[in-house]
Design goal:
Blueprint: H1 3-14, H2 18-35, H3 38-45, H4 53-56, H5 68-79, H6 83-100, H7 103-113, H8 115-121
Helix pairs in contact: 1-2, 1-6, 2-5, 2-6, 3-7, 5-6
């Protein structure tokens, strides 16, 4: 999937402008790089548009442990949007990742993020 297609899907799913979708997508990827182990972040980067590679570069081999609320706060701060827009954007980004990567990769990502994150995208088309 191209970067433009990815951002367009995020914007449509979340009801965001293209500019907001772009900012939230990059902020979500950056936050994922903190929440996933270094190896998993690299695996994910290899299946997404190259434009997200730098965002997903691991800051550490070890994943930080934080829940959805902290994830949303970090994305909102990085994207400079309110937490409501960040929440909608995160769900849209995760759903678009799910549609882009292999089933195995999605399972690996959700295995590290946990049930709380999986529930966010369970019913998202």
């Amino acid at each position: 999937m191209s970067h433009e297609s990815f951002i367009q899907k995020v914007a449509e799913r979340a009801g965001l402008s293209r500019i907001e979708a772009e900012a939230i997508a990059h902020a979500t990827m950056r936050t994922l790089s903190e929440r996933l182990t270094g190896g998993e972040a690299e695996d994910l980067a290899n299946q997404l548009p190259r434009s997200f590679r730098e965002d997903l570069l691991p800051t550490s081999e070890h994943a930080e442990s934080f829940g959805v609320a902290e994830f949303r706060r970090r994305v909102a701060e990085r994207a400079e949007v309110d937490e409501e827009k960040a929440a909608a954007g995160i769900v849209a980004v995760l759903a678009t990742i799910r549609d882009t990567v292999t089933g195995k990769e999605w399972h690996d990502v959700m295995g590290q993020l946990g049930k709380e994150f999986a529930q966010l995208v369970e019913t998202t088309g």
